[in-house]
Amino acid sequence: MSRTELIDVIDTLRQDETPQDTEALRRVDAERKRLTERRRFWRVLRGTVSTLIVVAAIAVLLATLLLPVLQVSGDSMNPTLQDRDVILLVKTDDWKTGDLCGFYWQNKLLLKRIIGGPGDVISIDTKGVVSVNGEVLDEPYVDELALGECDIEFPYQVPESRYFVMGDHRVTSIDSRSTVIGCVEKSQIVGKVFLRVWPLSGFSLIH
């Protein structure tokens, strides 16, 4: 029975109501309320589902185009980033020494720090001290300097459209010091790391 039909029945009963009709009227009124509540429930549900779909679509769009989300794997960026940290990256074309970037290498997404850009001359001594264009690089984010895994000759000039990258954990990181990875092409870079969102205790901007 539709809501309109219920209203017609109630109006008819109330026009010539008798004691025998009281129970029937109560039941009809209860049915009308039940139908009203059911319609309200489905209306709210449709609205909620529609909102969730829109939010999910926006989240996917942001994650794909603007704010890629990545979980850290390994210790090559210690102490700045820890294994299993969840971070956000922002897309940019403006890269400078010290920026943390995510880039693709053999279908894997790696995290390293940019040390030098196209044309820069990089030098690393036996103690792990890094110089860029003849100036020693201030690296407060590194706990322990080390030459690490290195099979290239210094001074080394970064090729055009490429970036020289290194992990903060210099002892274990495999990066541009090794020909295994080498310098990273600009087209390989996904984005700049700027925010750690997990764990919540470590929620912070990344520099």
Summarize the structure.
This protein has 207 residues and is α+β, with helices and mostly antiparallel strands. The protein has two domains: 3-66; 69-205, Umud Fragment, subunit A (Ribbon), CATH 2.10.109.10. The chain has two helices and twelve strands; from the N terminus they run ααββββββββββββ.
Q: Your description of this structure?
A:
It is a single chain. The chain contains 2 helices and 12 strands; from the N terminus they run H-H-E-E-E-E-E-E-E-E-E-E-E-E. The protein has 207 residues and is of the alpha+beta class. It folds into 2 domains: 3-66; 69-205, Umud Fragment, subunit A (Ribbon). Strands 1, 2, 3, 4, 9, 10, 11 and 12 form an 8-stranded antiparallel beta sheet that branches. Strands 7-6-5-8 form a 4-stranded antiparallel beta sheet, with no helix packed on it. Strand 11 and strand 12 (204-205) form a beta hairpin. The longest helix is centred in the N-terminal third of the chain and has 48 residues, at 19-66.
